[in-house]
Amino acid sequence: xxxxxxxxxxxxxxxxxxxxxxxxxxxxxxxxxxAALTSIAHRDASDELRxxxxxxxxxxxxxxxxxxxxxxxHYGHFVFRPLPPLAAFDPGVDSFTGNTIFLEGHRQxxxxxxxxxxxxxxxxxxxxxxxxVLQVLAPLVLVFIGFGAIAREREQGTLRVLAxxxxxxxxxxxxxxxxxxxxxxxxxxxxxxxxxxxVAAGGAPILPALALxxxxxxxxxxxxxxxxTVSSLFSNARSSLVALLGLWxxxxxxxxxxxxxxxxxxxxxxxxxxxxxxxxxxxxATGDSHNPDDPYYADFRAGVLEQYGVDDVADLPVNYSGLxxxxxxxxxxxxxxxxxxxxxxxxxxxxxxxxxxxxxxPAIAMRDLSMAAAGTDLEGHRRFLTQAEAxxxxxxxxxxxxxxxxxxxxxxxxxxxxxxxxxRVRIDPSHWHDVPEFSYRSATxxxxxxxxxxxxLLVLAWLLAMVAAFRIAxxxxxxxx
Length: 481
Description:
By secondary structure, this protein is an all-alpha fold. 73% of the residues lie in helices and 2% in strands. It has one domain. It has helices spanning 3-17, 19-62, 69-75, 94-97, 121-125, 130-146, 151-156, 158-164, 169-200, 206-233, 237-266, 272-286, 295-308, 320-356, 362-374, 378-406, 409-414, 419-424, 445-480, and strands at residues 77-80, 100-103. Helix 11 runs antiparallel to helix 14 (320-356) and helix 15 runs antiparallel to helix 19 (445-480). It is elongated.
């Protein structure tokens, strides 16, 4: 047996005898198991609830009686975002962004009913999930178990004894790191089992799941190296503990809380009210469909009359009101898309600014990586908003086309004064069944891995930095012996 293995085996025996180490590890394992079970149950229940509400919304939309098509445009429809399977491991921003949108004509509504908005302030601090346990709590337990790895040996005077027996400083640190690495592997075991269950029974994609496990293994490894390295720099265990607790507090608590605020201050977003006012101002400046003398719609009407070779909209073979509604919706939707893309670009800039703090905190890099690989990052929410808007536009235009083709212009204009015309503009409800159901397309494996790449590079950079620091600490310790 090599000297490194002997040192590691001896440290593992000492950890088993240490009540603090044993209790800390058992508590973390219990939290990991509880987090995995509750997260999987919560994810399954939430996804089932959303699927049930989506089916109910579809049934209610298709079950509407005979109506004017434009009434159905304003009746609207609800769509829900289904949860990706790996949301049970890392729910990401889902609890903050909302999961359902009400779709209607002439408006682009926000997502609503985020879990955090309906819960206590305690839930905003951090949900008990496998990702939270590994990102925040596991490094803390490693600190408490390993802070005295070298410092206590130096304090007790056993380092020089080991050196006198020919044990090199690199072997000492390597054995200590190997023992603490075994503890880190035990910490990762419940998460690995939960990930295996999500892949086998939950349909989670295997490559992102493996990437997540590998990334968390690298994250815990860099903390193992950091703990042993810092412990080797101090002459007593108390100083080592204080330094490591300060490092953990700064990198896993303070910086992850401060970074989003700095990103928001550096790239402020307009409020929803300001955006709505700006959109309406631009729409009015471009064309007002309710103003018969509006230049934009006057030109459109002239073009339609010329296309069909008639002099009056009443002579058109299609309902001009429906055509006008289609043009109006296309105009407002283009405005919505333009403002949405502008906002998305600002949000991406905010995300990049926050991720830049990953150079100072591996927890920030790990959090970004974890959400991206799980498909629960902000890009996943943007994907839902974009697909929901495309679906909304398709529904509205399909109904506007029904108004243009299934109704006459004369009936449409006189429906409020002529009871018979009011009945004729109510089209058969079977048309509501022709509206397709909303089908959300989640990110592909390639898209998830691409989105996780920046965070992964930062985590690997931190790991390499810790390896370099570990080697420097070994040389420094060797000169001191």
